[in-house]
Amino acid sequence: MEEQVRRVMADILELDPKSIDTSTSKDNTASWDSLGHINLIVGLEQEFQVYFDVSEIESMVSFSDVLDALERKLQA
Amino acid sequence: MTSSPNASDALRADLTAALGASDWRRAMQLARHLTASQAGMRHVSFVVRTLEKANLPESGLKKLRVALLSSFSIEFLRPHLILQAFLSGIQVDIYVAGFDQFQQEIRNPGSNLYSFAPDVVILAVEGEAWLPEIYSDGPAYAMTGFDEVIRNFANELRNLVAAFRRHSTATLLINNLVVPAQRQLGVLDAQSEFGQRAGVAQANDQLAEVARASAGVFAFDYERVVSYHGAAHWYDQRMSFYASAPVSMSMLPKLASEYLKYFRAVSGLAKKCLVLDLDNTLWGGVIGEDGLSGIALDTTYPGNAFRAFQREIANLQKRGVILAVASKNNLGDVEEVFDKHPHMILKAEHFSAMEVHWKPKSVSLELIARKLNISLEHMVFVDDNPAECAEVSQHLPMVTVIQLPKQPELYVAALHEHGWFDTISLSKEDQRRGDLYKQRDLAETMREQSASLDDFLQGLQMEIVFAPVTASSLARSVQLTQKTNQLNATTLRLNASDITSRMNDSSRWLTAVTVKDRFGDNGIVGLTISRLQSRVMEIELFLLSCRVIGRNVETAMLAHLCDQALRRDASELRGKIVPTAKNIPVRDVFERHGFEKLEELLSGETTWRLDLPGQRVAWPRWIKVRDEEAVATKP
């Protein structure tokens, strides 16, 4: 799953997949602005067939947060 | 649905290579593949980013500058417009005005909108932003209506359009308004003169009027788009409140596809010529194998689906689309279908070119292009066969190919999906198109206008054809005896050999009844079988499809039976009712037409008689009758 998330993130935020790691966050990534954030969420929802509530959307502000949120979703 | 990462990686690499090599047609096909099989946002993002890096300005694609003005966050539409425009051969540059800045952008001559110098401007403003009175405060107007509010709206819109025209000659598309899904008056809204539904309808009428009054300004039927896809799917309340992006992200490609119809039209890329395959496209089956009576084309499934498809094609022709045929067939077989098949809606004269032979279809298309002097870019090729579609795509990538789905009932939708032939110019064709819409509404208008049933029937302009059952109507006759339950006097179920033996019996007459009206041909809907025995004509079978019940067709059928009996010098017409659980509607048919009861069996079966010529059933006044039997040669 981690690799798949990396691919979605790389495509939507225009990043090199190899550059994405646990330190990657909204704060230190220029293309991860509010528009990019919505696109990323939608891209993840399509890729993993899930649906995030606004509270979840607001919490997913780093690569690790995204992985955590997805794990919780896919286990539920 | 995600296919293997390797497959999409390979497509991505090919796309990048094709763009690098300036092979634009190949790039379009690859981009279409990648985004069709992988509908996800990430692939759209990838393709758009790759396009932006490529040397598109040198591609020779049509260029179009598009400005988006909106009351909500419309920038999410941007990648979908860029992608789909590219797939249609258009390179768009997009300017997105600031959120809810449309008033200022339009009214200020020095705005970024005007310095962008757009070719097309989309004004996508939600109803809530135009008319909060209707959307948020409906019940406050439940007694007075929205007249004043609508007047103000129309004035505001008129002023806005006038301001726009002072500073720009661009094509302006104005989204019309969508009725809110939840009505503040509840169920009462539907019939209220002053409800939200009524208010939005008024507003949309005004919007269309303002658009009509100004050249190059168009009402964009956003309401239709939303209702077609369904408001429940269209909107994402979460994103509406969280990101001011009310349209669900998964619906944005659909919205982009609607705007593309206009982009193609203003870029001169609307298609002009529809090239059709024949077997399994215009009819079911293969004429060369199945023969004239074996192909599926009539008033029952699947023949009726093919007829519906033909009707839509005929309508495209009426609105100016040029039709051509590209078929691998023997010309003689094809000509026979066009000349002789009673259910062909499309006639040979509808087609401007016919390529019927065994050469590759790409060759046929080139021949058609040359003959009609139409560029291949303006042609749409339709075929059910994936191999033929692939052959054309490969050799002529500039031709738009529609591969039909397996089910003929989906053909019409496949033809219309992208609106390839939609035009926005005011031409004779457009005016004729208006007439077509009028025809479609006629049935409803008439129902409203009919003060009485008699007027309604008269207005139908019905024509009934009585014809002896022949080989070509045999199958339908069998089917009618098997399927008709309600208006069926004896419910005699017959198979093909039962009917054939009756056809060969010189004392029997089998009559197929075809009903046409101003709305079309209903096909064979009735059947009678009568038998002459010593001057008594006995009605052995009398049935009528429920499709035309309530139009007094049965009266005409009885009148015809009287004629038939009199021609054979019979002095009496005799009918029988064999009651079944379902044939209640037919029970009184003889009694209603002046027959007298002769006998009633314990089983409930009744026999009825009519003296001829004295009591003969009169022809209904409003029906035009063609009696092909009267001129037939049978003794």
How would you sum up this structure, described in words?
The complex is a heterodimer of chains A (76) and B (635). Chain A has 76 residues and is an all-alpha fold. In chain A, 61% of the residues lie in helices and 0% in strands. Chain A starts with a helix and ends with a helix. In chain B, strands 11, 12, 13, 14, 15, 16, 17, 18 and 19 form a nine-stranded mixed β-sheet that branches. In chain B, strand 1 (62-70), helix 4 and strand 2 form a beta-alpha-beta unit. Chain B starts with a helix and ends in an 8-residue tail after the last strand. The interface between A and B is medium-sized, with 16 and 20 residues.
Secondary structure blueprint with pairings:
The complex is a heterodimer of chains A (76) and B (635).
Chain A: H1 2-13, H2 34-48, H3 54-59, H4 63-75
Chain B: H1 5-20, H2 24-37, H3 41-53, E1 62-70, H4 78-87, E2 90-96, H5 102-107, H6 112-116, E3 120-124, H7 127-130, H8 132-136, H9 147-167, E4 171-175, H10 196-212, E5 217-220, H11 222-229, H12 231-234, H13 237-243, H14 252-266, E6 273-276, H15 287-290, H16 303-318, E7 322-328, H17 331-340, E8 351-357, H18 361-372, E9 379-383, H19 386-395, E10 400-403, H20 411-416, H21 428-449, H22 453-459, E11 463-468, H23 471-483, E12 487-488, H24 496-503, E13 508-517, E14 520-533, E15 536-544, H25 553-567, E16 572-577, H26 589-592, E17 596-600, E18 606-611, E19 624-627
Parallel strand pairs in B: 1-2, 1-3, 3-4, 4-5, 6-7, 6-9, 7-8, 9-10, 11-19, 15-16
Antiparallel strand pairs in B: 11-13, 12-15, 13-14, 14-15, 16-18, 17-18
Helix pairs in contact in B: 1-2, 1-3, 3-4, 4-14, 9-10
- Structural class based on helices, strands and sheet pairing of chain B: alpha/beta
Q: Helix-strand pattern of chain A, N to C?
A: HHHH
N/C terminus separation of chain A: 16 Å
Rg from Cα of chain B: 31 Å
Separation of termini of chain B? 68 Å
Largest interface: A-B, 16 and 20 residues
- DSSP summary, beta strand count of chain B: 19
Describe the largest sheet of chain B: 9 strands, mixed
* Beta content of chain B: 15-25%
- The helical percent of chain B reads 40-55%
Helix content of chain A: 55-70%
Name the poorly predicted regions of chain B.
428-445, 447-451
Described by the principal axes of the CA atoms, the overall outline of chain B is globular
Q: Proportion of β residues of chain A?
A: under 5%
* Structural class by SSE content of chain A: mainly alpha
Which segments of chain A are poorly predicted (pLDDT under 50) over 5 or more consecutive residues? none
